[in-house]
Amino acid sequence: MSWQLMLTGPAGEPRPFVMPQIMFSGAVQDRAREATEFYMSLFDDAGFGTVVEYPQASGTAGAGSIMFAEFHIGEQWFSMMDSNVAHRFGFTPGVSLEVRCTDQDEIDRLWGALSAVPEAEQCGWLVDRYGVSWQIVPDNADELLARPGAFERMMHMKKLVIADF
């Protein structure tokens, strides 16, 4: 886990104190905008905030790629960027984005749209086409897991199926 500290103007639109930062590098270099537009297309209340592009190529970042941008899905804000430095790391399941779904239809829709690495699927976890890990879980996961034998059944699931708890 790394941290990026930023000073913002107090007259600007309010942001949360902590915002996850998603940095695109390596195999997904210069795909931050593409990924963010894809993520935002999956949710009703989503949009961009500030977007700052590299005006010219800088290190590993191409001209027009994202130097810094912020976006929201619902009330959750994220920031993202295309790295201009080569890194020996990429996304891992050590950090994932969790989406709480209201019903099986929403689980199925998001799973179908996001899952791109079948061998990474387990217990509601998936990896998308950019390498970002997600957890797609029902809103009432705590209630479902309280049922006798539910944890053992979940351990055999890839996508979570509410009726199978």
Topology:
Layout: E1 21-24, H1 32-41, E2 46-53, E3 66-73, E4 76-82, E5 96-101, H2 104-114, E6 125-127, E7 133-138, H3 141-145, H4 150-154
Parallel strand pairs: 1-4, 5-7
Antiparallel strand pairs: 2-3, 3-4, 6-7
Quick recap:
With 165 residues, the chain is of the alpha/beta class.
Structure description:
With 165 residues, the protein is an alpha/beta fold. It folds into two domains: 1-89, Signal recognition particle alu RNA binding heterodimer, srp9/1, CATH 3.30.720; 96-164, 2,3-Dihydroxybiphenyl 1,2-Dioxygenase, domain 1. Helix content is 19%, strand content 25%. The strands form two sheets. A four-stranded mixed β-sheet has the order 1-4-3-2, with helices on one face. The longest helix has 11 residues, at 104-114.
Taking the alpha carbons of the first and last residues, their distance comes to 33 Å
Pairing-aware structural class of the strands and helices?
alpha/beta
Number of strands: 7
Could you tell me the radius of gyration in angstroms?
A: 18 Å
Could you report the average pLDDT, rounded to the nearest whole number? 92
Judging by the overall fold, what is the CATH architecture of the largest domain? 2-Layer Sandwich
What fraction of residues sit in β-strands?
A: 25-35%
Q: Using the alpha-carbon principal axes, give the shape.
A: globular
User: In the CATH hierarchy, what is the class of the largest domain?
Assistant: Alpha Beta
How much helix, percentage-wise, in residues? 10-25%
Instruction: Examine the coordinates and then state which fold CATH places here, giving the name of the CATH topology of the largest domain.
Output: Signal recognition particle alu RNA binding heterodimer, srp9/1
Low-confidence runs of at least 5 consecutive residues: none
